[in-house]
Amino acid sequence: MLIDFFNTLRRAQIPVSLNELLVLLEALKQRVAFCSIDDFYLLARVCLIKDEKHFDRFDRAFGHYFKGVEALNLFPDNVIPEDWLAAEFLKHLSDEEKAQIEALGGLDKLLETLKERLEEQEKRHAGGNKWIGTGGTSPFGHSGYNPEGMRIGGQSRHKRAVKVWEKREFKNLDDSVELGTRNIKVALRKLRKFARTGSANELDLPDTIKSTADNAGLLDIKMVPERHNAAKVLLFLDIGGSMDPYIHLCEQLFSAARSEFKHLEYFYFHNMVYEKLWRDNSRRFDDTVSTLDVLHTYGKDYRVIFVGDAAMSPYELFHRYGSVEHMNEEAGQVWMQRILEVWERAIWLNPTQERYWQYTHTTGAIQEMMEGHMYPLTLAGLEAGIRHLSK
Q1: Which tens digits make up the pLDDT trace of 201-242?
Q2: I need a surface site. Which of 59, 182, 328, 372 has the fewest CB within 10 A?
């Protein structure tokens, strides 16, 4: 049976291997999970799934193969017209009326009855006690009341539905969608260099057990410093102008980076890096940081991440005095080259869709400077960039 299950996962484009299947089989042999579909689900996910972004695909494949109630596709999409579920009528029930409503008799009976209703019903209903509709006491629909019904559409009101029929969407971990703080953290977490520094405030269980055994059973507690990600990151963020539509996305990236990296230094620039950077946009003309100081302050073990759309006038990148805001003595590309000479591991994250990059000359030029290490600011792009930084 597990061979078919394994093949189902592969057909769902989940990268599972035979070694992982053997690990699952060994765990089952040791009865890590026994006589419980929930325990088996958790065990299978731990053994077979290496990346959180595949959790949603695994859930759907698992439900499809084992025909679990949570993943039943009993009915084709859009079989119920949307106007049937428009909550234009809401029936108000007294406590006495609610007490008189009885359940249909269990989940199996509920599903069987729903099939019958779908075969028989021909039009929209509101306020009734039988058909799929809204605002009544029928077990099927929404915006009404039933102690054991199936909510179809609408929003939960009484928290009594035993099943919710609606399309499952887990977009946060999809490679192609815009990023959220959670899955940005998942991607950034792959840039790891663990170390234990600071005061010893975490129990070292293996050493404690060994020391206690060596001490003839007398408890000898050993402590170690907390283990943390010691990766060092320099984050350069383009701000203002054409980057305004991406403020929310950049805020999520910035928040996730500050959470994930203990050693994070960040600086802002506008369009292109020149001789000055800043940390506070409200004081960007008064409180600046010399780019030369940045180059001479942070060691070669730092990883560099640029965030920007790389879209600007060619003068800003290639010419002296080309900046739109000040008279720069040296061209932007000169400063970019200096940065890339100091820090070999550098990437550029571009929030604009990759298919538009070819229409901006400076985007292509910066991509060439980065030796191709410009990535779209999607989950897949961020993961690819982090892989490069991790080498």
Answers
A1: 777 788 888 888 888 888 888 877 766 557 889 999 999 888
A2: 372
Element (H, E) at 387: helix 379-390
Return the ∠ at Cα 345 (arms to 343 and 347), rounded to 5°. Answer: 110
- The closest alpha carbon to 5, from 16, 27, 69, belongs to 16
CA 267 to chain centre: 25
pLDDT at residue number 1: 62
The Cα–Cα gap between 131 and 370 comes to 62
How far is the C-alpha of 183 from the C-alpha of 188, rounded, in Å?
9
Is 204 within 8 Å of 173 (Cβ atoms)? no
Task: Assign 224 to helix, strand or coil.
Answer: strand
- What is the model's pTM? 0.53
Residue 179: pLDDT band by 50, 70, 90 thresholds?
Answer: low
Three-class SS state of 192:
coil
Long-range contacts of 272-278, Cβ-Cβ distance < 8 Å, separation of 24 or more: 272/312, 272/316, 272/317, 272/323, 272/332, 272/335, 272/336, 273/236, 273/332, 273/335, 273/336, 273/339, 274/323, 274/326, 274/328, 274/330, 274/332, 274/335, 275/328, 275/329, 275/330, 275/335, 277/236
Task: Judge whether 142 and 151 are in contact, CB under 8 Å.
Answer: yes
Contact 50, 15 (CB under 8 A): yes
